Amino acid sequence: MAGSKIVFREYTSDDSFTKLTDIPKDVSEIQVALTFARDYDGVGSTQGKFIPYWDTAIVNPDVIANFKSKYPSAKVLVSIGNNKRHFPFKIDEDRVTAWINAATESLTRIIKEYNLDGIDVYYEDIEVSNPAIFVHCIGELIKTLKLNKVITRASISPNIEINDNFYRSLHQNFEDHIDYVNLFLSVVENLTGNTNQEEVLEKLKPTLNQYPPIKRLLGYSSIPPPPIFFVVSKILLSHSFINGISLKVTSFSITYFPPQWILDLLQSPLAILGSCKCNL
């Protein structure tokens, strides 16, 4: 992509990442984001005490160690967050310090147990009285994990709808500790073969421009991704407007989209479809 290396991230709750067979030369780093760790126990909130909710029976420390041994450039992250309106980020103002302490302790334990490299913040539903609560809690969590050398990678994953209220301020206040901003396309409606790619790009630009190009990843949050996602991604990659892409993958889905196909598509002649008249 214009002679540069890119990041490819897979979001998964199972061991689909172990099925990768070849890493294209244009991919500098494979990232696996395990979904999710949550501070909920099935009954209610545990107030910052995070629990792994990926399939720990098949994604265990040995599986992760073997994968990282096979692909030395691979990084495995724990993704904290929620899916739509389930398991929201919800903290009372008088619980902020206690939440940060509990989250730091529990996530440190998970990261060390599974030999993980970083954290991804992927909250779609945030229920707080003041956006500053989210910014402070998540920012201090990331900062502490970084300063304690528990992690080497920190990522935030907004969508367009919630970016301005929460994630933009989070990055502004803690940008020195945040390595990637993964913008999900989940709110771009009706992404089909008939969608005008210029319109999609114009809708993305204002949000992407809030972050440094080297940090930007573009993601799609449903399975499988539509062809236009790859067209738009190729355009942005070829202009060095983003530094990589991310997708959700699960072996148990009836629409299973193997991660190897994704990497192969990025190398395909699909780029010829990516002629764009928009000004990037």
Explain what the structure shows.
The chain is an alpha/beta fold and 280 residues long. It has a single domain (6-273), classed as TIM Barrel (Alpha-Beta Barrel). The chain is built from 7 helices and 9 strands. The protein has helices spanning 61-70, 96-114, 131-147, 160-174, 197-208, 227-238, 259-266; strands spanning 6-12, 27-38, 51-52, 75-81, 118-122, 153-156, 180-184, 216-220, 244-248. The protein has an 8-stranded parallel β-barrel. Helix 2 crosses helix 3 and helix 3 crosses helix 4. The chain is globular, with a radius of gyration of 18 Å. This is GH18 domain-containing protein. Residues 5-280 form the GH18 domain.
Outline the fold blueprint:
Layout: E1 6-12, E2 27-38, E3 51-52, H1 61-70, E4 75-81, H2 96-114, E5 118-122, H3 131-147, E6 153-156, H4 160-174, E7 180-184, H5 197-208, E8 216-220, H6 227-238, E9 244-248, H7 259-266
Structural class category? alpha/beta
Order of helices and strands: EEEHEHEHEHEHEHEH
Number of helices: 7
Large-scale geometry = globular
| CATH architecture assignment | Alpha-Beta Barrel
Mean pLDDT: 86
Strand neighbour order, sheet with most strands: 1-2-4-5-6-7-8-9
Radius of gyration: 18 Å
Q: Could you say what the CATH topology is called?
A: TIM Barrel
Sheet of most strands: 8 strands, parallel, barrel
- For this structure, what is the CATH homologous superfamily? Glycosidases
Q: Bin the helical content.
A: 25-40%
* Overall number of structural domains: 1
Determine and state the CATH class.
Alpha Beta
Report the end-to-end length measured between terminal Cα atoms.
15 Å
The low-confidence parts are: 269-274
Strand content: 15-25%
Q: Number of DSSP strands?
A: 9
